[in-house]
């Protein structure tokens, strides 16, 4: 009977899954289990037995099981006879269409391309994936899944592709990979990477599905590590030779890869699992020839595979109950068969007619499995789930905030109650502090004001003291000059006496004219010319500046008027009868010496000789003056000494009498400079009169100055008193101002204090109101 098995039509990508978007939606997707049939090449035994080929691979999607055999035409007597072997079973010629069919020539790489290569992309999108190889013993399951070093199986190829894919995704995701390798032997689970005699227990988790408790997880970075790991694991796997397979695996091996990936930007976390299962081969005891333990192993294998077949049938029928818990294998494959998993089933078959029944059963199971509808979803741990969690967290936080606010309000009310008494105490303390601070401030201010007043008084005193010192120094200076002036004044009578003695001496000279004539004989060369009088007249006018330096005061005095001596310009009489009268015009304060009449002045030569002594004596000190150093005076003398007068030799000038004697010695002639110091008596007289006038004037000036000084002292005293009064007034005003300011500040502070008190009172009232309101709400 030839019939097309139920399944997807040719060319139709049955069970193909619509590519999920990369946005990470959690939409559930319905998909069929992908079924790939792999037909292995004939082994040596099969080839030797020359058995029939029962699997004819039509194309990559379809195969024909137990196809019709070509029969040679039989002719009898030239007529073709029907070739009918009634003893032979009729060929089934069953056409199977699967997702993929790999022929005998297909390599593991080809199988990988058609089976697991696509599911890696699904894995990266967050779907759990599983691949399991199903088939009879010796059908090539282990070869397909594990392979050899030269021809590695799809486990290695899948992992290599996984690492390749991870490399391309590492820019935006962080990956963490862990692997486990277990076997189910005689309905017990063992860790192949961590060998132990005690079997592991299976646990079911609502989130992650079936989990093996105590399973060791190993992280790997490269596919090469995986190869070594698989090799080590397979060494621990239970394998025993059977008649059907020299390296028959007596257990179901489950290799699982856990991939944890986290997006770097969104921190979305995805946990996915890839299971690759190498099932133990279903076997017939007659074919395997197993006895004892091997038989028992086979029975368990068959049992688990039977339960797997039952589950597949139920799933294909759409039954509500799936007996996953019938065996450990079905429990492990729960997710892969009917859960949240994209599953690929590789059905390994042998083309030889030796395994006719096994191949037929395998194909039937594969066809049934192909009908199973899966509901899959992405395993996103983070992302949108986190968003929903955020909403929950937000709500919880809001609740928490409300609770805390309520607690806070209660605690604040309590504190308000507790602090009622404390506030009063505190306010009293603060009042006391403010009062003490104010009193201290007032004391400091008063001290400051007193200090400032004292400072001002001291400055004033200092000023007055300096002025007084200046005044005293001025007075001392004036006293010193006055002393000199007084001395001069005291000498005035002496000057008068000198003038009187001068008049007497003139008279005496008149009487002794004869003797003088004799003396004059020594100066015969002197000619009496009319010009002499004019020469003498030249001495009539004396400039005060031409006075001897001896008469100049220590400090310059302001003379109110220049004293002018106006001699009578009467012609000078010859002989003794001639008299010269000197009249002096002066101010009203002139004394009794104002009108001094000088009589009996002889000729110039006589006068010159007679008054040498008088001139050389200082009128103030009556001491001799050795020389006259006033330049002007010298010039005057030089000009006024008549040219025709022969300067006599040196005379003895120790006494008046001696002056009238003859020259001491002719040899000791006097030089011109020396002679300049001797000047004529007329000039001396004039000088005395001038000096007297000056003294009188000076006295007047002194009186005026004394008067002025007393006046000035009075004024200064008055000024000083006025200053003191003003300073006192100012200090008093400043004190008053400072006091007023201090009082204003005190008032302002008091106001502020009262305002603060009011505010405190208002706050207290508000607190009480709130408290009452809260009590009402409660
Ligand atoms: N596609 C293939 N090409 C070449 N040799 C193959 C192929 N498939 C299987 N074989 C060989 O067939 C033999 C049995 O294969 P394998 O061990 O994989 O079978 P099995 O299904 O795993 O058996 P069991 O269930 O008993 O373990 C092995 O020697 C393997 O080398």
TrEMBL record:
Q: Which GO terms describe its biological process?
A: microtubule-based movement
What does UniProt give as GO cellular component? microtubule
Reading the lineage from the top rank, the first entry is Eukaryota
Q: Which family does it belong to?
A: Belongs to the TRAFAC class myosin-kinesin ATPase superfamily. Kinesin family. KIN-8 subfamily.
> The Kinesin motor domain covers which part of the protein?
32-372
Please give the organism: Pieris macdunnoughi
Q: Where does ATP bind?
A: 135-142
- InterPro entries, alphabetically? Kinesin-like_fam, Kinesin_motor_dom, Kinesin_motor_dom_sf, P-loop_NTPase
**Region ranges (Disordered):** 1-26
Coiled coil segments of this chain: 387-414, 736-773
Respond yes or no to whether keyword Coiled coil is given for this record.
yes
> Pfam families under this entry?
Kinesin
Q: Where is the composition biased (Gly residues)?
A: 1-12
What is the recorded name of this protein?
Answer: Kinesin motor domain-containing protein
Subcellular locations according to the entry: Cytoplasm, Cytoskeleton
Main localization, broad class: cytoplasm
Q: Which UniProt keywords apply?
A: ATP-binding, Coiled coil, Cytoplasm, Cytoskeleton, Microtubule, Motor protein, Nucleotide-binding
Tell me one GO molecular function of this protein.
ATP binding
Per the UniProt record, the lineage of the source organism begins with: Eukaryota, Metazoa, Ecdysozoa, Arthropoda, Hexapoda
């Amino acid at each position: 009977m030839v019939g097309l098995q139920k399944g997807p039509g040719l060319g139709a990508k049955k069970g193909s899954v619509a590519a999920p978007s990369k946005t990470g939606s959690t939409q559930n997707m319905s998909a069929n289990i992908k079924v790939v049939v792999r037909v292995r090449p004939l082994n040596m035994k099969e080839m030797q037995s020359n058995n029939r080929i029962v699997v004819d691979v039509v194309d990559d999607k379809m195969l024909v099981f137990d196809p019709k055999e070509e029969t040679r035409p039989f002719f009898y007597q030239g007529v073709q006879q029907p070739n009918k072997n009634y003893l032979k079973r009729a060929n089934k010629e069953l056409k199977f269409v699967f997702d993929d069919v790999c022929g005998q020539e297909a390599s593991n790489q080809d199988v990988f391309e058609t089976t697991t290569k696509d599911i890696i992309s699904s894995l990266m999108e967050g779907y759990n994936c599983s691949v399991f190889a199903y088939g009879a013993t010796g059908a090539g399951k282990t070869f397909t899944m594990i392979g050899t070093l030269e021809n590695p199986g799809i486990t290695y190829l899948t992992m290599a592709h996984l690492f390749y894919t991870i490399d391309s995704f590492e820019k935006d995701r962080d990956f963490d990979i862990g692997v486990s390798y277990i076997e189910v032997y005689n309905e017990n689970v063992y860790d192949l990477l961590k060998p132990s005699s005690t079997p592991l227990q299976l646990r079911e988790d609502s989130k992650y599905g079936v989990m093996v408790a105590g399973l060791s997880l190993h992280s790997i970075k490269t596919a090469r590590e995986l190869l070594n790991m698989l090799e080590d694991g397979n060494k621990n796997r239970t394998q025993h030779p059977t008649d059907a397979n020299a390296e028959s695996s007596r257990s179901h091996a489950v290799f699982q890869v856990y991939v944890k990936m986290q997006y770097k930007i969104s921190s979305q976390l995805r946990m996915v699992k890839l299971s690759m299962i190498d099932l133990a081969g279903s076997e017939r005891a007659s074919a395997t020839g197993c006895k004892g333990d091997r038989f028992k192993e086979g029975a368990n294998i068959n049992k688990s595979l039977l339960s797997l077949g039952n589950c597949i049938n139920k799933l294909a029928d759409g039954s509500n109950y799936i007996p996953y818990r019938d065996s450990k294998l079905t429990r492990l494959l729960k997710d892969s068969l009917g859960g949240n998993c994209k599953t690929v089933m590789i059905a390994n078959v042998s083309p030889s007619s030796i395994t006719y029944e096994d191949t037929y059963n395998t194909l039937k199971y594969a066809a049934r499995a192909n009908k199973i509808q899966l509901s899959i979803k992405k395993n996103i741990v983070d992302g949108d789930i986190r968003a929903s969690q955020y909403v929950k967290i937000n709500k919880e936080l809001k609740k928490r905030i409300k609770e805390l606010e309520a607690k806070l309000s209660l605690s604040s009310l309590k504190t308000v109650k507790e602090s009622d008494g404390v506030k009063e105490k505190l306010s009293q303390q603060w009042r006391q502090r403010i009062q003490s601070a104010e009193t201290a401030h007032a004391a400091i201010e008063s001290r400051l004001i007193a200090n400032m007043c004292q400072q001002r008084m001291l400055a004033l005193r200092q000023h007055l003291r300096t002025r007084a010192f200046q005044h005293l120094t001025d007075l001392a200076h004036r006293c010193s000059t006055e002393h000199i002036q007084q001395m001069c004044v005291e000498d005035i009578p002496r000057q008068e006496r000198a003038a009187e003695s001068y008049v007497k001496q003139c008279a005496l000279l008149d009487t002794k004219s004869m003797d003088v004539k004799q003396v004059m004989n020594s100066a015969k060369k002197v000619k009496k010319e009319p010009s002499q009088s004019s020469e003498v007249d030249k001495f009539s006018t004396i400039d005060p500046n031409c006075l001897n330096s001896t008469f100049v005061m220590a400090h310059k005095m302001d003379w109110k008027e220049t004293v002018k001596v106006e001699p009578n310009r009467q012609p000078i009489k010859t002989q003794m009868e001639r008299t010269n009268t000197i009249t002096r015009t002066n101010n009203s304060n002139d004394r009794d010496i104002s009108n001094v009449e000088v009589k009996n002045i002889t000729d110039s030569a006589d006068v010159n000789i007679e008054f040498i002594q008088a001139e050389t004596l200082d009128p103030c000190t009556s001491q001799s003056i050795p020389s006259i150093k006033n330049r002007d005076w010298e010039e005057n003398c030089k000009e006024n000494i008549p040219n025709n007068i022969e300067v006599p030799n040196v005379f003895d000038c120790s006494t008046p009498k001696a002056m009238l004697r003859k020259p001491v010695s002719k040899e000791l002639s006097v030089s011109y400079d020396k002679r300049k110091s001797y000047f004529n008596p007329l000039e001396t007289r004039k000088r005395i009169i001038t000096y007297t006038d000056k003294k009188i004037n000076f006295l007047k000036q002194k009186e005026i100055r004394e008067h002025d000084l007393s006046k000035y002292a009075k004024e200064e005293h008055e000024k000083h008193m006025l200053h003191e009064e003003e300073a006192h007034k100012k200090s008093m005003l400043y004190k008053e101002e400072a006091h007023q300011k201090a009082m204003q500040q005190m008032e302002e502070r008091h106001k502020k204090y009262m305002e603060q008190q009011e505010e405190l009172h208002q706050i207290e009232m508000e607190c009480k109101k709130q408290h009452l309101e809260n009590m009402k709400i409660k």
